[in-house]
Every structure is written in structure tokens, then in C-alpha cells.
Design a protein that fits this description.
The chain is mostly beta strands. The chain has two helices and 15 strands. Strands 1, 3, 6, 12, 14 and 15 form a six-stranded mixed beta sheet that branches. The chain has a five-stranded antiparallel beta sheet with strand order 8-4-13-7-11, with no helix packed on it.
Length: 215
């Protein structure tokens, strides 16, 4: 007698097209769940010192020159990831901002820690310029910027940096208090709240902002 028989004398059922399709669909569902970030149990909106994308920043930058340039670049925000899946930045936006300043957008770059071209707290212009030339030659739009640096990397060579641009609308001054970083893991979107990042642009009737910046 040829052929494989199971206990009880029954032959194993061949895989039909329907059963194969069901298995393929199950594999697709599992793959989508893994790629979507669901397995990490991360809140959709979380503080930047936790969650999957993490940004450590306690910077409080103050600009006190009322008659200085009306556009400046501020930074830096250095994101890292807590797991193996890369993160795609989708947007960077203010958490809270006064009407005396305008948010111009954000840029990203990979900074070589071995070089001398390190980000400062504030630079003139947005994007920043020096002697009529770009201060950085590698800034790119933050939308679509991919973060692959692991947070547990103790000796990184290339560090991702995010910088933001502000425009002083008038002499009143104003403050940007915190930023929201929207990012994507596979098919799922998240938002990291960077609460410790603040930029105070002092003005003629905004003495309190200067006080906050220096506190």
C-alpha cells in the first residue's frame, strides 16, 4: 500500500487553493501587524523621552536682539529609535506658539560627530547662511527623513539632527514652547511630544520671554 496514512486510517487532506489563500492572508496580516508597530505597544501620542522615537532635549534658547535678523535657525533635536524598525519623520510642528513669531518649518541632517561642523543653539537665517553661503550643505526636508540610529548606541558616528526655523513677525517677541514630531513605523503613525525644547524671541513688550529664556 502506497501513500502516507494518519492514525485512524485517514489520508492527510491536500492543500486546496482556498486553504493556501487563507494561509497567505494570515501571513500578510502578521507581516502588516509587525510593520505597523503594533507589536511595540507604543501609545499613538507619547512624550519624547519614552515611546519608540525618542528625542532628548532640555534646550531653552533665548534671542534678545530686537533689531537683529528676523529669521533664525534653532536646534538641535537629536532623535533615536528604541527598536529595530526604522522610523520615517512625517512632520515637525509647534506644540504652542505666540503670535509674535511664525514657524517656518524644519530641516534634518546627519551630523558626523568626528567633524567640526556641529550644530549651535541658534544661527542666522533659515536655512542658516554664512557669508552668503549655506552654513550646512546637507540639510534636507524633514518630511520623509529616516531615523535608523538606535538609542542604545553608545558610540555613534553619525547623529541625526532636526533644526527648526522661526520668523519674528514684529517687535513684540514671542515663544515657541515644545514641538510635536509626527512619525511613521510601517503603516502606523505616532506623535512624540518634545516638551523640554523652548525658543524665546524677546521683544519690546515681551520681557517675560527674556526672563524665561534665562531662567
Amino acid at each position: 500500500m502506497s501513500g502516507l496514512r494518519l492514525h485512524g486510517g485517514a489520508y492527510p487532506r491536500p492543500l486546496t487553493t482556498g486553504r493556501i489563500l487563507i494561509r497567505v492572508l494570515l501571513l500578510i496580516v502578521v507581516a502588516v501587524a509587525l510593520l505597523s508597530g503594533w507589536v511595540y505597544g507604543v501609545d499613538r501620542v507619547h512624550d519624547a523621552d519614552g515611546g519608540y522615537l525618542r528625542i532628548a532635549s532640555g534646550s531653552r534658547v533665548g534671542v534678545g536682539a530686537v533689531h537683529g535678523p528676523d529669521r533664525m535657525t534653532f536646534g538641535q533635536l537629536s532623535p533615536c529609535i528604541a527598536g529595530p524598525w526604522p522610523v520615517t519623520i512625517r512632520s515637525v510642528r509647534p506644540a504652542r506658539m505666540d503670535s509674535g513669531v511664525e514657524f517656518l518649518g524644519a530641516r534634518a541632517r546627519l551630523r558626523d560627530v568626528r567633524g567640526a561642523n556641529k550644530m549651535l543653539g541658534a544661527l542666522y537665517g533659515f536655512p542658516p547662511m554664512q557669508d552668503g553661503r549655506p552654513f550646512f550643505d546637507d540639510l534636507q526636508p524633514v518630511e520623509g527623513f529616516v531615523v535608523t540610529r538606535r538609542c542604545r548606541d553608545d558610540d555613534p558616528t553619525m547623529i541625526p539632527d532636526i533644526v527648526i526655523g522661526l520668523h519674528r513677525v514684529d517687535g513684540r517677541g514671542g515663544t515657541l514652547d515644545g514641538v510635536l514630531v509626527d512619525y511613521q513605523i510601517g503603516l502606523r503613525w505616532y506623535t512624540a511630544k518634545v516638551k523640554g525644547f523652548s525658543v524665546s524671541w524677546c521683544g519690546s513688550d515681551a520681557v517675560e520671554y527674556c526672563y524665561q529664556a534665562g531662567s
